[in-house]
Amino acid sequence: MHQEVLHKSEIKQKYRELAKQLHPDKKQTGDLAKFQELVQAYELLVDPNRRSYYIKSGYGWGSNAAHDRYPPGYRPASYTNAHWAGSPSTSSTLYTKNTTFISILAGIIVTIATANFFYFQTSHTTMLNAADQHHFKSSQDLKRARTEAKLFGNDRGVKRVIDSRMKQFRNKDNKEES
After folding, report:
1. CATH H-level, domain 8-76: superfamily
2. I need a labelling partner for 155 at 20 to 30 A (CA). Which of 15, 51, 64, 134 fits?
3. pLDDT tens digits for 26-42?
4. Which of 32, 31, 50, 53 lies closest to 42, judged by CA?
5. pTM of the model
């Protein structure tokens, strides 16, 4: 039995001719089902690995060719030793969809922003209360100092200065004696 071996350029040329005739946009000769079959055949014939595997085993062609799994024990060369090349499992998904991921990420960002907003409000209020207390205490001290200055004049201030000088003098003497 003689098999005719077609080169990629010949396959591509014949594919283009048939694609022009069968394309669904062409009103007279267009046929979607035949066009899809043509595309499937072209993809099978252009890939040398898939073509030789199909010739040897018959796998890779059919209504679900795009979804066909390879038979047990066969992996194309590009899939060899790849952790993801095993049979697809339908029960669990390794990765989530982009919309789910974005929704979760947006929820986390909104939660963090809300927490930061309330933390800022609380810390700002606490800081303002502390500043108000400090200003109130300073105002009270200043008021007391003015009242004492009116009542006792400059005597208390002078006495305080003398006491601090005497303390420094005594500390200096104690250090020299040691």
Report:
1. DnaJ domain (1.10.287.110)
2. 134
3. 777 777 788 888 788 88
4. 50
5. 0.33
